[in-house]
From TrEMBL:
GO molecular function: G protein-coupled receptor activity; olfactory receptor activity
Keywords: Membrane, Olfaction, Receptor, Sensory transduction, Transducer, Transmembrane, Transmembrane helix
Membrane topology term: Multi-pass membrane protein
Residue intervals of the G-protein coupled receptors family 1 profile domain: 1-215
GO cellular component: plasma membrane
Main localisation: membrane
Transmembrane parts of this sequence: 20-43, 64-86, 120-145, 195-215
Stored Gene3D superfamilies: Rhodopsin 7-helix transmembrane proteins (1.20.1070.10)
Compartment(s) of residence: Membrane
A family per Pfam: 7tm_4
Protein name: Olfactory receptor 51G2
Domain of life, source organism: Eukaryota
Length: 232
């Protein structure tokens, strides 16, 4: 966000190499961590619907904190080698980024040397984090749907599914632009630059901006307070 504001408000269009590496490290680490949090939330919904009576004993505060810590460390660990893999290169190509921030898949294309190692590592990390998380989330919802369909009462079935709506919206907001941007950067060489820029901003800004709205809409108390605020 500081870089985006600097570009548009102060016309500051340069960034040092070390600052660029630090920026891409934090961006990718937070993206992978957010993907893991969405997976934990899917698991939370599955336990709550599959075995609600044992929910509190299954997902204790300690277990939840430990799972969260493991996924945060995973995000940091897989991204940690990226700045060092990029720092070994010399850069002699066009040094103009298509976004107002640095991404590994874009910075590595500016290197003069062979980027096969970076390409393979970056793709592997994406598949083993975002790709694997999305598959587990899909599997969780298949199991949730199977459990819900076994409920005899139609009302209870809809009530159980209704608890998943906000999380499904958050998943779509995160994974749709993220997967699209990854595919375009690696395989869409002839794609319009405007599409890359648009998807880049959507993947970085839209999920954190929309998630509070998505979850607050489901809350009757928040919805009532928002309506009262606008009615005034």
């Amino acid at each position: 966000m500081p870089t985006i504001l600097g570009v548009y408000l102060f016309k500051y269009r340069e960034i040092s190499l070390d600052a660029c590496f630090a920026q891409l490290f934090f961006i990718h680490a937070f993206q992978f961590t957010e993907s893991s949090i969405l997976l934990l939330m899917a698991f939370d919904r599955f336990v709550a619907i599959w075995d609600p009576l044992r929910y509190a004993s299954t997902l204790t505060l300690l277990r939840t904190a430990m799972m969260g810590l493991v996924f945060v460390l995973r995000g940091v660990a897989v991204v940690f080698p990226l700045p060092f893999l990029l720092k070994r290169f010399q850069y002699c190509r066009d040094n103009v980024l298509s976004h107002s921030y640095c991404l590994h898949q874009e910075v590595m294309k500016m290197a003069c040397l062979d980027i096969t190692v970076n390409n393979i590592y970056g793709l592997s990390v994406t598949l083993l984090t975002v790709g694997l998380d999305s598959l587990f989330i899909l599997f969780s919802y298949v199991m949730i749907l199977k459990t819900v369909l076994s409920i005899a009462s139609h009302t209870e079935c809809l009530r159980a599914l209704n608890t998943c709506v906000s999380h499904l919206c958050a998943v779509l907001l995160f994974y749709t632009p993220e997967i699209g941007l990854t595919v375009i950067h690696r395989f869409g060489k002839n794609s319009p630059p405007l599409l890359q820029i648009l998807l880049g901003y959507i993947s970085l800004l839209v999920p954190p901006l929309m998630n509070p709205i998505v979850y607050s809409v489901k809350s009757k108390h928040l919805r009532a307070r928002i309506i009262r605020a606008f009615m005034k």
